[in-house]
Write a structure and sequence with these properties.
Length: 198
Amino acid sequence: MSNKAHSKDAATNPRGIPYAPFVDKVEDYVSSRAEVDGTMKSFQEMISKYQFMEVNTQRRGAGLKDKIPDIQKTLDTVQFLKTRKPDSDALEATFELNDTLYAKALVPPTEEVYLWLGANVMLAYPIEEAESLLESKLSAAKQNLGNCEEDLDFLREQMTTLEVATARVYNWDVTQKRKEKAEQADDSRPEKQVVPNG
């Protein structure tokens, strides 16, 4: 196989996923039938790696799709609390404790909110700071989701390219086998003696 497929300077997408080699001429990758199995195995390994990346990217995208609505809901709540005047009456709110468990609370006008940061960590933030933090988290999550969707399209393209490359190498191998059989058949036939008439 040529050095093009193993080059360390191989082109990648913006997140470092390498492009699959495009096999235009099989002879650039395989010079003899002895190299076909290694080339096919190499292409299959690359397809497996792309499939692994695809599964991880799908999982990451699904997590972001779950997280974005929660961040948006929290941001909307912080923005609502920001609009309340200091002399407003306490607000009765129902909030979720668990999937099926809710509680009621009286929420007085406030200048600070508590945000879950993850890993069982909650911090108090002034409302302005909480709003900017949530806006940046929401923006980053949307950007990451866009990147995941872009990467999934890219990975599908690369897998298709490799499947086509595998088919081309396989077809080249079949053609070479037929040529070899035809040559062997021609070599094994006895030459006809031309007998002159008469």
